[in-house]
Amino acid sequence: MESDYGISWRKIMKKLVVLSGAGISAESGLKTFRDSDGLWEGYAIEEVATPGAWRRNPDHVLRFYNERRKNVLEAQPNKAHEILAELQDHFDVQIITQNIDDLHERAGSKKVLHLHGEIFKMHSEFDIDLTASIYTDMKTGELAPDGGRWRPAIVWFEEPVPKIGEAIPLVKQADLFLIVGTSLVVYPAASLVDFVPMDCPFYVVDKKIPATGIGRKLHTYEHLASIGMEQLKKQLLVQFF
Known about the structure:
Elements: E1 15-20, H1 22-26, E2 39-40, E3 43-44, H2 45-48, H3 51-56, H4 58-74, H5 79-86, E4 92-97, H6 103-107, E5 112-114, E6 117-124, E7 131-133, E8 150-154, H7 164-172, E9 176-180, E10 202-205, E11 219-221, H8 225-240
């Protein structure tokens, strides 16, 4: 919509930057490992989510991610995902997610940056930029065009996080900053809070409010993501509209 001065309403929307984690997808039935002593669906992380695991037993790793892919295909976005998509009517919403699922996108969110990869993509083990979509089971030994084996396009523990360089400037641009469903224990994702502008309102939604390590007032909602996001949406609309 254009105003009488030719200025797009969307261009003057406040920028809401969101850092989301596994807690937002838990209500869609996707399990987290932070609630189960380091196990993810019964698997030890070092057995399925490290470069060493891939070298030692690629069959085991692919079996794990094939199961996760099926889980995500069966899951549906929940109310928390939907509210973030609805907020695009009022804010310029940029989501930075630690999640590998596509529930933000399926709920309707347009700007989503995946820090830790995407379950429906694979890349060559030689070149992370050589990618392809995958919605079925990956099979051991299938090769990318460069001769490397296809592997899940997931950032494993002990690997660098290439997208962090894209995420930091987005956080610095925030007019409002929200973390939802993350315990802030995984780095470098957790370090993004250090780049939030000092005058930026800071909101936290989680069933257990994490320590942010920042010296400022937080607006906290200690609930499941769906309940907390309902409350936050009401506050934002009252406060800014």
